[in-house]
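Researcher: Let's do a round of design. I'm pasting the structure tokens now; please hold your answer until I've finished.
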């Protein structure tokens, strides 16, 4: 008959790192309503006698969750162990407690189970957004790029959706991944086919919930000009024989020099 020894130390690897013993606690960070996140931990450890044990724990599982939350245990014998937790879309703001257990099935490795409490804050404020440029001068039909920077301060890797509202005949969306606790920049192209002055919103929202969203107001002026025509060359608008490429490159150069001098 196997006897139970005192529990060994569990190394948490994500969404943040830490070392936990049985009965320990850890604060994981922020999560938005409707979003999912993963808790990962090493399956290896040192037992009570200091001996290294490979796959000491067989799975990582939630033994207690807030009402309405769901989880998926890590696959058996995976290293690292990685379990998934999903927050309901109607979860109210606040800090929630979960109990997670690293399980040594039938105490085979003789390290015993490790159960710890994990705390996480539910809030829609899980990312910050910046967009450049916010004032654009282009020619009709000339595409231009917006540079969208998403700083994901939450622990979810759920996709974000980039879209623009207020441009005529423009309904293109782009799904992007900004990994948790990282800052990433994405290129979002836009264009209008007619001259005019437009104010529109560039919006980034989580695919998990429309409560998680931020917008930037962009001003776009579309009119024909020699400079804008030259800039269109750099956007790949003109489809012509390769023999004309040197001339187009020079046209683009002239347009950029003009803008640098005039500030237009």
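Researcher: That's everything. Go ahead.
Model: Designed sequence:
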């Amino acid at each position: 008959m196997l006897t139970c020894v005192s529990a060994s130390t569990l190394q948490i690897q994500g969404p943040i790192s830490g070392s936990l013993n049985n009965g320990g606690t850890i604060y994981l960070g922020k999560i938005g309503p409707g979003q999912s996140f993963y808790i990962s931990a090493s399956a290896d450890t040192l037992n009570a006698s200091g001996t290294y044990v490979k796959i000491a724990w067989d799975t990582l599982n939630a033994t207690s969750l807030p009402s309405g939350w769901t989880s998926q245990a890590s696959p058996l014998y995976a290293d690292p162990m990685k379990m998934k937790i999903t927050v309901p879309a109607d979860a109210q703001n606040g800090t929630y407690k979960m109990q997670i257990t690293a399980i040594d099935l039938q105490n085979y490795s003789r390290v015993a189970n490790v159960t710890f409490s994990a705390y996480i804050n539910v809030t829609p404020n899980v990312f910050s957004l910046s967009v450049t440029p916010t004032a654009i001068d282009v020619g009709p039909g000339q595409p231009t790029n917006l540079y969208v920077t998403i700083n994901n301060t939450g622990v979810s890797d759920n996709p974000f959706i980039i879209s623009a509202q207020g441009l005529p005949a423009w309904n293109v969306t782009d799904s992007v991944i900004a990994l948790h606790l990282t800052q990433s920049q994405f290129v979002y192209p836009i264009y209008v086919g007619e001259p005019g002055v437009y104010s529109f919103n560039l919006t980034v929202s989580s695919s998990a919930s429309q409560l998680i969203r931020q917008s930037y107001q962009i001003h776009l002026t579309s009119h024909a000009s020699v400079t804008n025509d030259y800039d269109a060359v750099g956007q790949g608008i003109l489809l012509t024989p390769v023999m004309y490429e040197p001339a187009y490159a020079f046209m683009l150069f002239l347009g950029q020099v003009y803008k640098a001098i005039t500030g237009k």
